[in-house]
Amino acid sequence: MDYNKFKIKKNIWSLKGDYKIYDEHEHVQYYVKGENPFLRSKFSFCDSDDEVLFNIRRKLLSLRHTFYIAKDGIDVIKIVKTLGIRPKIFVEHLIDPDAFYVEGNIWGLNYKFYQGGEEFAMVSKDLWKLIDTYGVVVKQDADESLVLAVVTIINIIKDIQESRG
Prior knowledge:
It is globular and about 40 Å long. Helix content is 12%, strand content 47%. It is mainly β.
């Protein structure tokens, strides 16, 4: 089966935490823009035609970093970072609990997406050696935009964790 390859690059000069997602030919396919640079509480996941595919919001006033990804006003994904010395990140599909699960070293940007026990997407810092860039490969028949939205939010949680020491 064929895979689509993407490169996610964080705009390190942006206060909003903006990300651009390129295909293997260096064309922007998607981007994420933050709406509140200081709270990092609302984001839009857009395609290259500026269509908003997902609205992303952070649950404020919560001890755990919790984000929701919504499509057409309906929450589809919940992403939560646990508390503790060795925190974990859990991804929950709210519509279909059997849709997929995520395993691997999330903090090291080396993890995979599985559905029915089979891998269908992989995230790896090793695919790109630049500091602010990492790679994602997604099977062609998978919902690449949803996978890329999840990966971006996981990275935002990681950035929030690292900025707080």
